[in-house]
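Let's inspect one such protein example.
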Amino acid sequence: MEICPEKGLGAQEFRCRDCKVYIGMGFGEERLCDYSGYYYCTNCHNNEALQIPARMVKNWDFSRHKVSRKSKEFLRSCYRSPKIPLLQANPFLETFSEEVRDVVVRILL
């Protein structure tokens, strides 16, 4: 439930995280996955955007971010079965968001 920082192409030895083809530095276009923090080639990352659960919980950010194909598959598989204890993941969210406060009140009543 953490927002993944960018790892950097050097940490990946200038290779796509999934298929290991060389990317960046004249090899081929690289694309950052906002969910994993890793870089991918254009075959493994087609610029599709989804909401990132950690960003929703930590920052109340429901905007869409670009993700790799594998991250997209994983995130889509999780949508139907939520697994995040919202207030445990961010106990201060209730104090900053009226929407969360309303949900908590309804659950506790």
Observations:
- The longest strand covers residues 48-51.
